[in-house]
Amino acid sequence: MLTLQQIRENTERVIARLAVKGFNGKEPIENIIALDNQRKSLQLQSDTLSADLNKLAASIGALMKSGQKAEAEEAKAKVSEIKEKQKAFAEELAKTEQEIREILLSVPNVPYEGVPEGKSAADNVVEKTGGTMPELGDDALPHWDLAKKYNLIDFDLGVKITGAGFPVYIGKGARLQRALIQFFLDEAGKSGYTEIQPPYVVNEASGIGTGQLPDKEGQMYHCEVDNLYLIPTAEVPVTNIYRDVILTPEKLPVKNCAYSACFRREAGSYGKDVRGLNRLHQFDKVEIVRIEKPENSYTALEEMKDHVQGLLDKLGLPWHILRLCGGDMSFTSAITFDFEVFSAAQQRWLEVSSVSNFETYQANRLKCRYRGDDKKTHLCHTLNGSALALPRIMAALLENNQTPDGIVVPEVLRRYTGFDIIN
Description:
Blueprint: H1 4-9, H2 11-20, H3 26-65, H4 69-106, E1 125-130, H5 143-149, E2 153-154, H6 155-161, E3 168-169, H7 172-190, E4 194-196, E5 201-203, H8 204-210, E6 222-223, E7 228-230, H9 235-239, E8 246-247, E9 254-263, E10 282-292, H10 297-315, E11 319-323, E12 335-343, E13 348-357, H11 361-366, E14 369-371, E15 377-379, E16 381-389, H12 390-400, E17 402-403, E18 406-408, H13 414-417, E19 421-422
Parallel strand pairs: 4-9, 8-14
Antiparallel strand pairs: 1-11, 2-3, 5-7, 6-7, 9-10, 10-16, 11-12, 12-13, 13-16, 14-15, 17-18, 18-19
Helix pairs in contact: 3-4, 5-12
């Protein structure tokens, strides 16, 4: 969430930049400032009472010693009166602080200056393109037909067991999935990321810490009896490792990676965009997470983009990078770059990665800090990226690599799959 200092020192800029996300921040920001003024006033009055209380408490002993019992009793009565006032102030202060927090939790992150204006995905900007477009014949099949032809993925069986959006991978399809996961993890390890194996369910505090709550309750699977949530991405448990942590300078930067299953309700999804592997309720993903000093976070963002680009180049997939406009960005992000690969049989671009810098927004929720050279604590910057999400990578690999003899496995995956072609 935004910091009070950020809001107070740059009020007009915060309101103006929030408008880039399509969020009218004028009323909530003004309410936050008014409540903060109220909080400061209450705190000042409470501190004044504490000072009066300390003076009276010190005087009681002296009065008793000097035999001024009546005066001492009068002082004790005043002490009781002040304590009652303090209690009332404490309750009002806690109520005010809670109101401030609730409003802060409802305000999205401020977009970075480099974020373009725009309302939807149509306004995103193509930054860079790479890879070679495959040339397929008119008889090229989409991945859902290829999966059926070669018995790689059974979508109907997933519907039987669970429901739509929960496919079952079979034989070489399952091995190709496992190969991709291992390849992504190994490449992350080569780039200096420490592997984490996180839980797949998190508590409410973790969801709030990374910004999934209270914004995305409807998109998360909620285990109501235990008040736990199935993770939509490994970003949530991995970043929450650093909740309420003060990092020493030598611990930074933090570079973690994690494989996990991801669970998303995707409420309201329908049509051609959800066919086959295009949109699932459960899917696999390798995530990279970084915790950085603020002055290093944008260099780290470029390194993360280079890492994702390298994976796509090694897989031989055509890709482009989109700089997301304000209207298409997530609630928590300061800036996001999406990677999309071209799916030749579908003749469309499929998103396979989002790489984002959240600046201090998540860190303020998490109280993730580091101790600077000035010996004071400062909020970290948090970043994450998909490296990579598997379903659409699998879709593009199956479609783009189909030949009359079968589906050719990219060379970098063959040592993991144990086979060169699916036929």
